[in-house]
Write a structure and sequence with these properties.
The complex is a heterodimer of chains A (743) and B (191). Chain A has 743 residues and is an alpha/beta fold. Chain A is 30% helix and 18% strand. Chain A has a 7-stranded mixed beta sheet, sandwiched between helices. Chain A has a 6-stranded mixed beta sheet with strand order 24-26-25-28-23-27. By secondary structure, chain B is of the alpha/beta class. Chain B has 6 helices and 7 strands; from the N terminus they run βαββααααβαβββ. A 5-stranded mixed beta sheet of chain B has the order 4-1-6-5-7. In chain B, strands 2-3 form a two-stranded antiparallel sheet.
């Protein structure tokens, strides 16, 4: 919707991000004597640590560790410790708002807000067709909300164009797992780390993105496990690793292919497993024939001796655990990178047995459950295929619609932005997604937002993206609605409504149900509570590749979580998959997939000679819409820094805190230099949690994986220039705000 | 894991620097406590960020013969029967900073210059006295901070040895808090 109604700074002055600190007597009114301690889970990453929230006078006033939750046993990262500071936050949206040109955002009543949204949905869909109104969602939502969003978009909004921010997270892993195993879930719970002889972590900054998992890895190391870490930077978990392979960004599958060839050449294989329980090994072996150690060294930049040592360590082990995350998945060949890791697991047959594990570390709180049941553009609940006639019929019957009325496969998240820019999509409803910060090449995203005829968003804070909205619907925090999430290990757990939404804010599900009612489909959204939604989800997932049918709220509560698949109410759940070696594929075998090496979309050249990679820091979460408002988290790492090796810095005469202009073919931005030896000499790193002029995603490339449609955040080409200036004395006070003018 | 331990005397504090990931979770959790005036009594620092990602964590070591208490002219700092060296008694502390200067580990601080009162870790006396672990050792996500029995630690971490004897030149300091060192270590010679 055109430009901002008033300047960004004027919007920021009202809606923040403001840094919120605990103050005696205000937020934490006598937290030592709380009225209640409610056991629930952290709202941030996929580990979903157990936590108790302190409630006093119907407000969340603090936390207390939950020592009995089996995964984290009380442990929490700084985000978890400070999470409660988003409750009672001065930036909280307490009523719906409408955009008024020249005035900014003005509070309105719910009726007016709903009317405006429904009127515009009808106008746009009547004028341009149903699919011209798109929806973007997010997987910080519970399973119940995710399921409801999926149903809302297809049944009430009747659009094919629904996608979600998991598109930036687990889709490469999901696609790779489906190809190999016919199921999209980590094959093991973290318990299988305990006695793994070798742990291989690739593309996962465990100690900053999944801090509590660090303890599990050390437990295994105490039991004798060797640790191999693959990452272009010396991340905290790499510092003490037995082997750290600092590869050139974008060459992940070259490294894993070379390792596979070493396994084959030395017969460090489980031939019985390969022959009896897998298919595709010969083609895969053929595809790595040329991947010699010399070739691997030339492509990855890692000495061949080190590659051999890692392959030998992996090859000779009797038990092992391989885990990866966005570092290998955020690529235009993300699915191939995942397959190449699975090939290493299958070649050694170390899966489906105690202490033989494999899995992706899901990044978002409900990245696992959300993608199974909700808002993926090509998927129906139970991980069903929206183009499969039987799947369509099954779900259409549960939803009470005709199969032919079920929309077909829609566009993925970034494709929706592109379609807006092409003029094909005219209206947008978002919930729990901040694409202006989190999508690559985000100048394109801004152009799209400015082009939309109508944009409404459901959220609890005014995110950078929502600054462009026509109508803002004040929604709820995770701790304001009952539900479940599914953690990275496939454990379905209970999320508690600890408090009510403040002011006139409403529960997300209440907003969606009311919109559905006003769109004339209220009879299909008649849920009395979250448990009813969950029970419909159970039925919709029955018999599927993500079967929740046997999971009930009562069972989840009693057992502190149930691992899916769980087909019946007397089924114990499945922490470890594939123990019977019957995979979920058509031939019941695990599938090797050949992964011939492909270069990244953009490689350094004369004009842009340096590799740019992006990632996260421990104190911030994703687009920062929540964590950039929490004072102590902001203070830990206030502004994005450009990590650069001293040798590369010396070539440009760059010193610590020099303000550096970083440019790519998409745009340029200024970042202070952080000169450190903990990164490759040919690569620079910028964390991406900030918006506006401080956004790293102004620079990243919008190349997508052809299968998963994940963007290539982890590698593009850039150039750097000295500005002759030092970092501004007060720049860190402003970076969290996402301004559009440089401090 | 049981929610509460049975006997405080069985429990010890162990610090393992190699596991510290520099996440500051301990600092943030410590600063939640009203007893501390919402100031963290544990501190994380980079060793040298230009060269390494390594961080250190410093918590009160609760010395057997606490220098901070010995140099206190006001007798504000006391050690109790469980070996906990308590933060300065606010009615006695004169803010002279002798303890700040004297502590070989750099633990006591005077965080509020206007109040001029020394503050330091008392091993979460309010929690440990009711059978709860200290807050920092409860939340630490990497196991760099642990509160457990010596037997359990010996069993769970066979590759390291807890050390509580520190050599600072001619001064030998024995502490209640242990630092995990390479297996077989007997003491840590600082200089």
């Amino acid at each position: 919707m055109a430009k901002l109604p008033v300047s960004a700074d004027e919007i920021i002055s009202v809606f923040g991000p403001h840094q919120h600190y605990p103050n005696k007597g205000t937020v934490r009114s006598n937290p030592q004597n709380p009225d209640a301690l409610i056991k629930t889970h952290c709202c941030f990453c996929g580990l979903q640590c157990g936590i108790q929230l302190k409630v006093k006078d119907k407000k969340v006033v603090g936390f207390e560790p939950w020592n009995d939750f089996p995964f984290n046993e009380g442990r929490l990262c700084p985000k978890g410790v400070q999470r409660y500071m988003q409750d009672n936050h001065p930036d909280r949206l307490l009523s719906p708002y409408k955009r008024v040109e020249g005035k900014g955002f003005v509070p309105i009543e719910w009726d007016e807000a709903y009317d405006a949204v429904i009127k515009e949905i009808r106008r746009i869909q009547d004028q341009y067709g149903k699919n011209a109104f798109a929806m973007l969602s997010g997987v910080s939502l519970t399973n119940e909300k995710s399921y409801m969003v999926g149903k809302f978009a297809r049944v009430a909004l009747k659009t094919a164009n629904l996608d979600y921010n998991g598109r930036l997270c687990m889709v490469s892993a999901g696609a790779g797992n489906k190809k190999a195993f016919g199921m999209d879930r980590s094959s093991n719970s973290w318990a299988d780390l305990a006695h793994a002889e070798v742990i291989l972590i690739t593309g996962a900054n465990v100690s900053e993105c999944f801090p509590v998992l660090t303890h599990k890895i050390w437990e295994a190391r105490d039991n004798g496990a060797k640790l191999i870490v693959i990452d272009p930077r010396q991340i905290p978990i790499a510092r003490t690793a037995d082997i750290h392979l600092p590869l050139r960004p974008g060459t992940d599958s070259a490294l894993t292919n070379t390792m596979l060839k070493v396994l084959i050449d030395n017969n460090w294989l489980d031939n019985d497993f390969i022959n009896n329980y897998t298919s595709g090994f010969e083609e895969t072996a053929e595809a790595v024939k040329e991947c010699t150690l010399e070739w691997g060294e030339a492509v990855t930049g890692i000495p061949k001796e080190l590659i051999f040592k890692a392959a030998e360590m992996w090859g000779k082990a009797k038990t092992s655990f391989l885990m990866h995350a966005r570092g290998i998945e955020h690529h235009s060949k993300g699915v191939q990178n995942v397959s190449s890791c699975i090939n290493l697991v299958l070649a050694t047959g170390r899966i489906g047995k105690p202490y033989c594990g494999y899995g992706t570390i899901t990044g978002q709180g409900n990245g696992q459950g959300g993608r199974e049941h909700g808002h993926k553009c090509d998927q129906l609940p139970g991980n069903r295929d929206i183009e499969n006639p039987e799947h369509r019929k099954f779900v259409a019957d549960i939803w009470g619609i005709k199969e032919e009325d079920m929309p077909r496969k829609g566009l993925s998240a970034y494709e929706i932005i592109e379609a807006i820019n092409r003029g094909e999509i005219k209206g947008l409803l978002s919930i729990c997604f901040n694409p202006l910060v989190s999508l690559p090449n985000n100048n394109n995203v801004r152009a799209a937002l400015e082009k939309l005829e109508f944009y409404a968003g459901i959220d609890f804070f005014l995110s950078e993206t929502l600054r462009h909205a026509n109508i803002i619907l004040a929604g709820s925090l995770q701790e304001e609605e009952e539900g479940t999430t599914t953690s990275a290990e496939g454990r379905v757990i209970r999320i508690r409504a600890v408090v009510d939404p403040p002011g006139k804010a409403k529960r997300d599900s209440e907003i969606l149900m009311e919109l559905a009612r006003r769109l004339g489909e209220g009879d299909k959204f008649n849920y009395k509570n979250s448990e009813e939604t969950f029970n419909e989800l159970r039925v919709a997932s029955k018999g599927s590749a993500a079967d929740y049918y046997g999971i009930t709220y009562e069972r989840v509560e009693k057992n502190l979580g149930i691992f899916w698949p769980c087909p019946t109410e007397d089924h114990p759940g499945t922490p470890r998959l594939w123990e019977d070696r019957q995979f979920n594929t058509n031939d019941k075998k695990a599938h090797f997939n050949p992964t011939p090496y492909k270069k990244p979309t953009e490689e350094p050249d004369e004009e842009y000679p340096i590799v740019l990679t992006t990632g996260r820091v421990v104190s911030q979460y994703l687009s920062g819409s929540q964590t950039r408002r929490i004072g102590k988290l902001v203070d830990l790492y206030p502004e994005p820094l450009l990590e650069i090796h001293p040798n590369l810095a010396a070539e440009y005469g760059i010193e610590e805190n020099d303000l550096i202009k970083v440019s790519t073919r998409r745009g340029s931005a200024l970042f202070p230099a952080n000169v450190v030896e903990t990164i490759r000499q040919d690569t620079v790193f910028i964390p991406y949690h900030w918006g506006g002029v401080n956004s790293a995603n102004q620079l990243t490339i919008d190349a997508l994986d052809p299968v998963s449609k994940i963007p290539e955040f982890k590698v593009c080409a850039c150039k750097i220039e000295k500005t002759g200036r030092k970092k501004g004395e007060h720049s860190k006070e402003f970076a969290n705000q996402s301004r559009d003018i440089q401090y | 894991m049981a929610e509460q331990f049975e006997r405080f005397n069985d429990m010890e504090f162990f610090v393992d620097m190699q596991r510290c990931i520099g996440c500051h979770s301990c600092e943030m959790a410590c600063a939640e406590c009203e007893t501390n005036g919402e100031t963290s009594m544990i501190h994380i620092h980079y060793v040298d960020r230009a060269e390494t990602i390594q961080t250190t964590v410093q918590v009160c070591m609760h010395c057997e013969d606490p220098i901070c208490a010995n140099v206190c002219p006001a007798d504000a700092i006391t050690k109790d029967e469980y070996g906990i060296v308590h933060t300065a008694d606010t009615s006695k502390c004169i803010g002279c900073a002798n303890c700040v200067i004297g502590c070989p580990f750099g633990v006591p601080q005077i965080p509020d210059q206007s109040a001029m009162l020394m503050m330091k870790c008392n091993m979460c006396y309010d929690r440990t006295s009711t059978g709860l672990k200290p807050m920092c050792a409860t939340v630490c996500p990497s196991g760099a901070l642990t509160f457990d029995t010596r037997e359990n630690v010996a069993k769970k971490r066979p590759n390291s040895t807890p050390v509580n004897r520190f050599i600072f030149g001619k001064e030998i300091v024995n502490t209640k808090v242990n630092i995990m060192m390479p297996k077989g270590s007997k003491e840590l010679k600082v200089f």
